[in-house]
Amino acid sequence: MKDPGRTLWQALQEKGYSRREFLQFCAVTAASLGLKASAIGAVVEAFEKKPRPPVVWLHFQECTCCSESFIRASHPIVADALLDVISLDYMETLMAAAGHQAEKSLADTLKAYDGKYILLVEGSVPTGGDGVYCTIGGRTAIAILEEAAKGAAGVVAWGNCASYGCIQAAHPNPTGATPIDKLLRRTVVNVPGCPPIADVMMAVVSHILVFGRLPDLDGQGRPKEFYGRRVHDTCYRRPYYDAGMFVEAFDDERARKGCCLYRMGCRGPVTYNACSVSRWNGGVSYPIQSGHGCIGCSENGFWDKGPFYQHLSSFPGFGIESTADTVGLALGAGVAVGVAAHAVATNIRKRSLIAENRQESVVAREPSDDKKVQP
Amino acid sequence: MSQRIVVDPITRIEGHLRIEAVVDNGVITDAYSAGTMVRGIEKILKGRDPRDAWAFTSRVCGVCTTVHALASCRAVEDALKITVPRNADLIRNLMFCSQYVQDHVVHFYHLHALDWVDVVSMLSADPAAAAQLAQSISPWPKNSPGHFAAVQQRLKSFVESGQLGIFANGYWGHPQYKLPPEANLMAVSHYLDALEWQKEIVKVHTIFGGKNPHPNYVVGGMPCSLDIEELGAINTERLNHVAALVKDAIAFVEQVYVPDLLAIAGFYKDWAAIGGGVENYLAYGDLPTRGYGDPTSFRLPRGAILGRNLAEVHPVNPRDLAEIKEYVGHSWYRYGAGDGAGLHPFQGETELNYTGPRPPFDALDVQGKYSWVKTPRWKEHPMEVGPLARMLVAFASGSTDVKEIVTAVLAKLDVPVAALFSTLGRTAARGIETQLVAHWMKGFLDDLIANVKAGDTRTFAPDLWEPETWPATAEGVGMTEAPRGALAHWIRIQDRLIDNFQLVVPTTWNASPRDPRGQRSAYEAALVGTPVANVDQPLEILRTVHSFDPCLACAVHLYDPDGRQVGRACIDD
Questions:
Q1: Residues of chain A with CATH 3.40.50.700
Q2: Closest residue of A to B228, CA-based?
Q3: Alpha-carbon A68 to chain mean position
């Protein structure tokens, strides 16, 4: 193996970075990943010698929609990611090895790349019944997760399952499904959505590998890059909301015109995601564009905030500069204030519509999760 | 000498599956299939708005995405006596077809192919000879010597990096790999092409359903509107986009998937006599051409075949309490009437009753209960479901399209009809079906356009949308064919909320443990008689199990929160 391919260091050199900048880059990487100063050497070595960063992808309680979404990425396409960008050393859905040989692949990676691999987790972890509702290799998901996270350079939670528990955590949460950041004492990048958008997933991995640090996260551990804006604030149908032109039934005249789906239960006003900007599957569409309201699938506890077709009574904040954290605080201060402010800011026609809607609607409940408001 | 081998985890599937097999003198003499992860979606559905059920059940599985949404919508529509507009049936058919084409291609290349294709062997191939081979069976433009040489060089650099990624620790060099290096190079090149192409066809879901995986459905029709004079609806540009995707899908299936399947099958004809399993086949059918209410109009017909007798197709009625029953004699559940009872899904019970060994363990107690998958039976018969069942029921029902292509494929491979009852037959049936479905998809798009042209643009039936219009109680069944086989949802609505929701899914039929009479289900039966050359590298087990395209998240979705808290509930080796 005289020419094992281009290392990250070589790639940076080609882009004009100096050795000094490279070492700074490694130090920042190590620090941002929560590694001690003594571990920087290992990071430098890994990036100098290993052409592709090793990645471990674990599956627990999930439906594999996150894996399916990941392979839908368009930039880069997943074949390029697997052959040129990362070394996907363990992923049950795609790996050739099975049984003992698969277990060996995982064990080999954790040992050989201790402190250097990226851990991607799909699925929640059941903590009910002493964690026995999902075990692999005779061990509980909790034990497997803790072991794999210990030597990971960074941990990413894919989708609503790993970020918030998703459907299996919906009432009555029979198996005690738990998001992984509740189980790990370290920073976890939460990439919610059911599933997350393919190119968002790819971008989160790239952000870590290309820029050498975790993306900026909000109070819920979500990358601000993709979860900093409400679907409502970036929705192309927003002008219809402001004009008070709402779809009243699927396939009615206003549905055909592409009016606002607020009254059909759209959760866009309380959902932080990139759908209306990045859109889905190479930018083709997103739920609202195809006529169905957002069901809020990237939000904590969205399954228990239904029924989906009952519209929100109100939602806090209306400025595009609102972020999940500030809105969370506003929610904490009281929904009524936000509603009043919003009503003042809207035209007369819409104000009467909102008042009318409020009487027959579901209340925009705050996620019970205590992470929602973090000063 | 008798040896017990365990493969756990079975990879390249959806979910968590464990296979235990007894091997005597190089042949499997007994096998046990165990599903090992539980969630609890049926329990979670109780008390919800029935119109939301599709969103919940679609999260049963993200691989066979859309099919649960469809079955749920139909179950509610059946209960409330809602007939969806023709356009909604056609759009649902288009989504169904695009799901099949994507899922079957991904199954063939990314989940199944590595059982037949040796990735390492391709490194020694002659790219020019590989191109000659590929061009002799297909006009696919990427079958050029230059492209194959580039792919080979790319994989060579990959292997030399020492980081084999998803290809690490495969059974490379196993004597059961029979393809010449050139065929392996062709297949690996198409593995990469398929990975790039599959993300395109799902855009049909994105156009009509807003996203993929998990596009949106709605009870009473489809949420998208059709209007060729509006920017905000499915208009001419959107229909053109679908047409382009369908065209490319037909090309990929005809120029890549089917030629590869036939070429590879030609080297593995011995597998036309291995892995047959149970001799009964069940299909609910789908793809209505005159509405879902008229099963005689289905492109994929409904019916059952018993004892491989293709001269008779039995009628199937999932509403009949005597036809479908689920048993728990070998599953970790308890029935009030005793574990020997069989219950129709409308009467289903789900009380947890784990009796297996405490982990870590080497073997399950296969004399007792050993899986979280229940055991469904049709008129007490174990049934295989999936592409092979669908093609056999269609063949036996006299479907001209199906008869033509099945006969052509058998002639091409020079094998008799009996070859269909095998691991190879199952894999071939999936490819045959994909080719048919790709063309039917074009027909459904033409029908949709013709309907719009005739002035019918309705996509939604609004009359029974409001719960106030519903009866106090209602029961319904929603049926479809998931890519992996017959799928049905049973719903009972009381006071406008879900009172009971039951699913019997394809992998429950195929992967279940044996019934109280000792009859094996499809996986277990198919594994018996399968040769295993090297018990440390049981490649043959993967071939037969993967030929069914397992989907365990679907199969194990039951859990009773009121059940006794017992021992270990989810166990892989």
A1: 53-213+220-225
A2: A256
A3: 15
